[in-house]
Every structure is written in structure tokens, then in C-alpha cells.
Amino acid sequence: MISLLCLSLLATVAALTVTIPSAPGSGNAPSISRSLVSLSIEQDRWPEWAGTSSENRFFLNTLENLNAITGAPPDIRIGANSEDHTQFSAQVEAPQYADVIFPAPTAIVPYPEALNITVGNAYYQLADHLPKGTHVIWGVNFGSFNLTAAVLEAKAIMNAFYSPPFKAAGVTLDYLEIGNEADLYANNGLRARSYSSSQYVQEWTTFASNISDAVKLNSTGTRFLVGSFAGSSSKTTGFSPQAIYSEGVLDSVPGSLIAAFSEHHYSGSFCTGNGGLLQDLMTKSTIRSNLTIYMTDIIATHEENLDYILGETNSYACHGAPGVSNTAGAALWALDYALFASQIGISKVFFHVGIGFKYSLIQPVALSRSTLDGSPLSSPLPPHIQPPYYAALIACELRGSEKDARIAEIKVDDARIAGYAAFENDRLVRAVFINSQAFFEVNNASRTSVHLDLAFSGTRPRKMTIKRLAIGYADDVSGLTWGGQTYETVDGRVGGKLQLESNLVDYGVDIAETEVVLLSFT
Ligand SMILES: *[C@@H]1O[C@H](CO)[C@@H](O)[C@H](O)[C@H]1NC(C)=O
Ligand SMILES: *[C@@H]1O[C@H](CO)[C@@H](O)[C@H](O)[C@H]1NC(C)=O
Ligand SMILES: *[C@@H]1O[C@H](CO)[C@@H](O)[C@H](O)[C@H]1NC(C)=O
Ligand SMILES: *[C@@H]1O[C@H](CO)[C@@H](O)[C@H](O)[C@H]1NC(C)=O
Ligand SMILES: *[C@@H]1O[C@H](CO)[C@@H](O)[C@H](O)[C@H]1NC(C)=O
Ligand SMILES: *[C@@H]1O[C@H](CO)[C@@H](O)[C@H](O)[C@H]1NC(C)=O
């Protein structure tokens, strides 16, 4: 009894010394893009994200919040599953933008992707609503294997982005994507059962040649990204970057216009959630093992001088597991996931979002049925952010707005605590710690904390401010505060008064179960 009591007391006052690097060091602290945290949007309901006759102010405010922190809005990829179900017709004009046919909602997937979508020029032109400085990736249909349709879509996209309103809006198209998750085509009926990566390379090259000729791509403007695979064999057989490079995808004339490889990744496919599943998602080691599986792919891609991105990612398939993907715990997952990705050569992490999807960072329009089980809501739920949006804010605040910004993982000898240090112009400026022990109401034990004693590899800063992501329980879906402030507001802008603690670095900092602390050194 006594020893058990002592153990539990020890647990509540556990202390841990962490050594924060005082300088980026050689090669250990990669440069971080201002848009490390970016978004992938399911394109069937794109006009509602952008807003049609007027901008969708709520959505744009959530992007502007991030822009104000780093000096650049998140990149936006538009496409995904519905990209391969999109046809083009010049007859579809404003105020219609898109003809969309949806399947019936189900309890598991209350907001399903469209079966068919037909778009016209006006649909693409809505992207000039995005914040100034936004970089975009747009996908064209490859799944239907209709070259005419893909070329028409690419022409409409390029006509929009190279028109005067887009130049004035400062919205640029970095990449055209040709198809979504072609490695699944053999299973989902879009190709023969025998579909292989070499057939993909051959077909991709044909589509890219025609598109490139039709819209006159060159090495200084919009280029191609390739891949967008759902998984990877990481070998030269099966679908992987290694396979398509060895099969010559880069060697053709349009292949020379490929500048990036895009991988898609979900941590798993669970259509119902539970507390154990949420803890698995948040766990430091599973976050790392979900990303390090791509190490050889990343190296192979960098050897070809291409950028490597996670072009579509989020927690669990089925648009997220209820009680898991839509919770505060998922915010801690998303933060550690994006920051760890940056450490292994992934330049940008595009979190997938869709209207009504459980894992969306943002719900940009009012919802009339539950995202969790599809049941009708007694009154519409107005536009709102979901907990993982805080991960985007915190990653941006850690990085800051300087051009020369680097982040290094802090080695923390604890299975539940992750840390990262941020440098501006080689100077240590901030550190973030994440305690991924999931704290639930059902346990209702007193919440433990870990006391972090701060050591430094070089010069020791004297003072710091502490900003906390305060969370009730890991499975809370609202009520989080960041430095005492909330983004659960009518317009998506910050509300409430900023609350920071100031302390001597010598005192260290306590971090509770299911909490994030951001330290800014002065
Ligand atoms: C969707 O489009 C395909 C191909 O264009 C067509 O064959 C099919 O009938 C359409 N489905 C619906 C439900 O309209
Ligand atoms: C594709 O390119 C070939 C060769 O230039 C051309 O003959 C054909 O008409 C093009 N097809 C489409 C759909 O643009
Ligand atoms: C291919 O796309 C074009 C343009 O949208 C359309 O006119 C044509 O019917 C499509 N072909 C097939 C076989 O669906
Ligand atoms: C390259 O292509 C872009 C469109 O992608 C165009 O705006 C630009 O003028 C082109 N540059 C050259 C040098 O041809
Ligand atoms: C990814 O994380 C999930 C937990 O979210 C875990 O079940 C799965 O095994 C992990 N996958 C890999 C490849 O590590
Ligand atoms: C949890 O503990 C608090 C304080 O001890 C108590 O007020 C509350 O009712 C408990 N909640 C549950 C669900 O048991």
C-alpha cells in the first residue's frame, strides 16, 4: 500500500531535465516553411469554402490568423477523392459553379464525397478569394481516363490563375496534380485489377504531355507534382516514388517539369472511436513510426532534387473517428505530427479537410446534421473551428515570421513528452513541449504534471513567457483556450484577453497531462 502511494505521489511530482539546444547546430535544425501546416480541401464543395458571390469571411479569417503569425497563409491543395469524379463543362457558370451529385449520408459517413461533379470556369476563378500570397495545388481528373476532360480542366485552371484578378490577388498556382491515389485504382474500379506503377508512369506521361502542351508549362511557372499515392511500397516494385523514378517518370519532357512528390497518409482506418484509440493517436512513438516509414522515399526524392510533401493527411479514414479525430487530443497529435514531419525532410503537411468531416480543422459553413452520426440537428451549427485548428496556430507561433527560421526536435527522455526548439537567424527564441498523456473525465484521478527543469547546450536565457493550450479532457470537442484566448468565435478571429505567465528560466515549467506549453525566451 505504502509503496503504491509513494509511486503515485512520485508520478504527480515527476521532474525531468530537458536540454534545449542553444543553437541550430549543423544539419540538425531544418529550415521551416511558413506554410509547414497547410490544407488539402475536398473539391466537391469548394465553392462553399471560397464563398461565391461574396467571400466566405469565416474561412478566410481562419487563414488570415495564420498569415498574421508567419507572414504567409497556408498553402491550399484542392482536389482529393472528388478530383477523380470531376468533369468539365463550360456551360456550368456562376451562380451555379458546380453541378454535384452526392450519395445518401450514412451514420458512419454523414458528409460523403460527391459521386459526380461537373464544373466550369467560374468554379476555378473563386480561388482569387484566397488570402494574398496563397500558393495553390489543383488536381485534375485522371481516374476517369478521359484526356479531353483533364486538358479542359487544366486549361480552365491556368486561365484563372494567369488572369489579372489572380495577379492582383497575389494567389499563385505552384502545381498541377494529375489524379488522386492512383495506387488504389486497381481496387476501386478506376483501372484494371492488374494496374501497375509502370502503367501509371506511361499514362501520367501522356496526360502530362497533352496538358503541358495545351497550357504551355515551363520550368519557371506552374509545374507538376507527381505521386499523390495513398501508400508506398518504398521499393522499386509496387507503387512508390522509387518505382516511378526508376520507371522513368522524370525522364520525359513533361517529367522534367515535376518539382515535387506528394504522399498521402492516414494513421489508420477506424470508423468508430474510443479512448484507447485517442491515446494511440496521440502517442509519441506511434506518431514517429507513422512518419519514419517514409524515410527511404524522402531520401530517394531529395536525391532527384524534388520537394517531398504530405499532400493529403489526417488522423483516421472515414473522415475521422468520432470522439477521436474531432477532439483536443487530436490537436496535440496534429502539432507533434507536423513538427516531427519537418524533422525528417517533409517540407509541408497538408491536413485534409471537408465540410462536415470529423477531422477538419475548420467547418467553414453551417451544418444541419451531426458530423458524428449524421442525425439531424435541431438548429444549424454555425461555422466554427475544431480543436486541431489550435495545432496550426501553435506550429505557426513556434516558427514565427522570420525568413530564416529553423526548428530542432529536443530529445526528451520520456515516452509522453515531445519538445521542439525554434531558432531565428541562428538564435534560440522559443520552445514547445507537448504532454501526450491522454487525460479523460472517466478516470477522474487528479491530473498529473511533469516538472521540466530546463538545461541549455550553450548560453542560458534568463527569463521566459509561458503560453498554455488549456484543455479540460483529451476528448473535449470545444472549450480549449490558447494563452487564455479562444478561436471559437462567430467570425473565426481571436476572442478574449491574452494571458501569459512570466518566469525565470531557472524555475522550469510544469506541464500537465494533455497540455501544450510554448516558452518564449527573452
Ligand atoms: C456520373 O458520371 C458518369 C460518367 O460521366 C456517368 O456515367 C454516371 O451516370 C453519372 N452518375 C450520376 C449519378 O449521374
Ligand atoms: C493530345 O496530344 C496529341 C499529340 O499532340 C494530339 O494529337 C491530341 O489531339 C491531344 N489530345 C487532347 C485531348 O488534347
Ligand atoms: C470526355 O470528356 C469530354 C469533355 O468533358 C466529354 O465531352 C466526353 O463525353 C468524355 N468522354 C467520355 C467517354 O466520357
Ligand atoms: C512560364 O509559364 C508561365 C505560366 O505557367 C507564364 O506565365 C510565364 O510567362 C512563362 N515563362 C516563360 C519564360 O515562358
Ligand atoms: C500509426 O498510428 C496508429 C495509431 O494512431 C497505429 O495504430 C499504427 O500502428 C501506426 N502506424 C505505423 C506505421 O506506425
Ligand atoms: C470528478 O472529480 C471532481 C472533484 O473531485 C468531482 O467534483 C466530480 O464530480 C467528478 N466527476 C465525475 C464524473 O466523477
UniProtKB/TrEMBL annotation:
Signal peptide (UniProt feature, chain positions): 1-15
UniProt KW Signal keyword: yes
An example Gene Ontology molecular-function term: hydrolase activity
Pfam family, one: Glyco_hydro_79C
Residues passing through the membrane, by range: none
Residue ranges constituting the Beta-glucuronidase C-terminal domain according to the UniProt record: 419-518
Domain of life: Eukaryota
InterPro entries (UniProt xref): GH, GH79_Enzymes, GlcAase_C
Entry keywords, A to Z: Hydrolase, Signal
Signal keyword on record: yes
Protein name: Glycoside hydrolase family 79 protein
Organism from which the protein derives: Mycena rosella
